[in-house]
Amino acid sequence: MQHIQSYIEEHKDRFLNELIDLLKIPSVSADSAYKDDVIKTADVIKSSLEKAGCEHVEICETEGFPIVYGEKMIDESLPTVLVYGHYDVQPADPLGLWHSPPYEPVIKKTDIHPEGAIFARGACDDKGQMYMHVKAMEFMTATNQLPCNVKFMIEGEEEVGSVNLSKFVKNNQEKLKNDVILISDTGMIAQDVPSITTGLRGLSYVEVEVTGPNRDLHSGLYGGAVANPINVLTKMIASLHDDNNHITIPGFYDKVEELSEAERAEMAKAPFSLEDYKKAIDIDAVYGEKGYTTNERNSIRPTLDVNGIWGGYTGEGAKTVIASQAFAKISMRLVPHQDWEEITDLFKAHFESIAPAGVTVKVTPHHGGQGYVTPIDSIGYQAASKAYHDTFGVKPIPQRSGGSIPIVALFEKELKSKTILMGFGLDSDAIHSPNEHFGVWNYLKGIETIPLFYKYFTELKEA
Ligand code: BES
Ligand code: MN
Ligand code: MN
Fold first, then answer.
1. Contact between 169 and 407 (Cβ < 8 Å)
2. Nearest atom in ligand 1 to 86's CA
3. C-alpha radius of gyration, the chain, whole number
4. In the sheet where 437-439 sits, what is the strand order?
5. Between helices 127-142 and 35-51, what is the axis angle to 10°?
6. Fewest C-beta atoms under 10 Å: which of 68, 367, 384, 437?
7. Is the peptide bond before 101 cis (omega within 30 degrees of 0)?
8. What pLDDT, on the 0 to 100 scale, is given for residue 169?
9. Which residues pair with 360 in a beta bridge?
10. What's the pLDDT tens digit per position in 375-426?
11. Which of 121, 158, 427 to mutate to test the pocket of ligand 1 (most atoms within 8 A of CB)?
């Protein structure tokens, strides 16, 4: 494509400043205190799409936060790319662990990002990655090089389960019709090892509650004689894994896709240093399911993790008490063929069955979603591969990710199209954590690579 590098060079300060302005708005979808900010962010996205050359840009109201839609249809006979992204972000807490305030973006150099990285909540997940597409669109329309039709659909509820987007997709199949869906909301292996995400895990998220006596009790007067809900809950949770770290819920693994030895050998070729992995998060050993490597454990194998646990006295000093109740939030990452609703039912039945006499157990399902895998011989994958090859100088590696974007499986079911996941973030960018950041180099590299995807996809599709 003509002039992409010079266009970026000329406009990069503005590209950065626009993203910085977007990051200043705290669009936290999970916390109602930020409702107005989330809505304001949708308006900013709307005008940015208009400025980038989209037409019919609209704010589509839902029962929750709005979806921003825009399109540029140049010729019905040409292919259509649907871009999806999200403008909502995760809560920033714990605030005390941020080195600079989460909604006051700053650019700082790091070892991995010598050109600087933008530090702010949402810098990588997903405002920065989503905005690369807006700027790539600007380049293609401003220089008259848009090779096909484009539709943008940017939502504000990804971090809370995309429930309203699911309804929107089901009700707007004709409007959203496309030949391929393009998303940048994942990562890549390393700055010099580009990768294309070919798999996402599914998710089942539940909350559990264990209730014992009808009130908190004196732990001396009653201790040892009644079931302590916190003792019971922790014992029940511990029993969900055996000594090999296999999950003990009956039926849990029944539908798990087992990869062939050849596929596992292919996966093992991706560059990976266990020493660097441990060092980056300061641990002296990895931990996980017996018989699988670290990269397998965090991508092709299902998991069960406690995300939060509470109950009893956690204030200053000591209080001698047996709490009446104990709670935990538990997530299960799932792999292809495991159905999240079925897994949720299996969990519920099992968890209730292992409760000892003396307590009652309640399991409340939260959101969830199916996993996803996509082949590497599709036109979309090939186009992405060629685009990365042009801008990184090497062929990208297919990589199955451990994260989840539940809407992707729904896109395939409802819209019958494949999703190409072109991520430009790194695992070390600390998404969902304090000090989230996104490399300036990565941001600009994304803007440079995306237009080439359009070009190659159109060429391959027309061929
Ligand atoms: N962008 C992430 C998912 C992701 C990150 C996938 C990196 C692969 C690599 C997304 O915003 C996210 O956080 N998803 C949630 C699930 C959602 C239902 C809350 C997740 O994976 O925890
Ligand atoms: Mn995301
Ligand atoms: Mn996220």
1. yes
2. 11
3. 24
4. 106-108, 117-119, 437-439
5. 20
6. 367
7. no
8. 98
9. 211
10. 999 999 999 999 999 999 999 999 999 999 999 999 999 999 999 999 999 9
11. 158
